[in-house]
Amino acid sequence: MKRAFYVGRFQPFHYGHEKILSTIAEEVDEVVIGIGSAQKSHTPRDPFTAGERIEMVLKSLENFPIRHYIIPLQDVEYNALWVPHVKSMSPKFDVAYSNNPLVIQLFTEAGIEVRRPAMHERSIYSGTAVRNSMIESKNREWAEFVPPTVAEVIDEINGICRIKRVAGNDD
């Protein structure tokens, strides 16, 4: 059995993340999904809490084809300690997936295989683009970038109002 680790901030979880996880599911038996920067929320860059992001991912993956674990990971301000922190918070894993240069470097130095999944239409499916759409749109254009279950969570928590307020653009 092979288990992977994949970390993201998921601010919010979008179709690009879903596509990467589908790719991972084709290569391994289980995946640990790390909710990065778990301590951050209520800012334009990080509007959602760790619990809200866990709910987004969990609901989006209800029919996911492999076993998955979701863990919150607070930032560690000392990069050399980040991989040991991840390992202490996660079930054991064999391979990590990332395109983040720092994450790749830290896992590589720790002797963990790192695979770089293809990004799915990165110019469209990025957290920054989705958050900007949330702030700027008058309608629900942002919802086309996220699974319907994520849009439901955002609606339930009044997330659009939150992000507009913390961005200083509440109309």
Set down the secondary structure blueprint.
Layout: E1 3-8, H1 15-27, E2 30-35, H2 50-60, E3 67-72, H3 82-89, E4 95-97, H4 101-109, E5 113-115, H5 127-136, H6 148-156, H7 159-166
Parallel strand pairs: 1-2, 1-4, 2-3, 4-5
Catalytic activity: beta-nicotinamide D-ribonucleotide + ATP + H(+) = diphosphate + NAD(+)
Keywords: ATP-binding, Cytoplasm, Hydrolase, NAD, Nucleotide-binding, Nucleotidyltransferase, Pyridine nucleotide biosynthesis, Transferase
Protein name: Nicotinamide-nucleotide adenylyltransferase
What does this structure look like?
The chain is an alpha/beta fold. It is 40% helix and 14% strand. It has seven helices and five strands. The chain has a five-stranded parallel beta sheet with strand order 3-2-1-4-5, with helices on both faces. Strand 2 (30-35), helix 2 (50-60) and strand 3 form a beta-alpha-beta unit. Helix 2 packs antiparallel against helix 6. The longest helix has 13 residues, at 15-27. It is globular. The termini are far apart.
Residues in β-strands, percent? 5-15%
Q: Characterize the overall form.
A: globular
Kindly state the mean pLDDT as a whole number? 95
The run of helices and strands is EHEHEHEHEHHH
* Main sheet: strand order: 3-2-1-4-5
Protein name: Nicotinamide-nucleotide adenylyltransferase
Main location: cytoplasm
GO biological process, one term: NAD+ biosynthetic process
Family: Belongs to the archaeal NMN adenylyltransferase family.
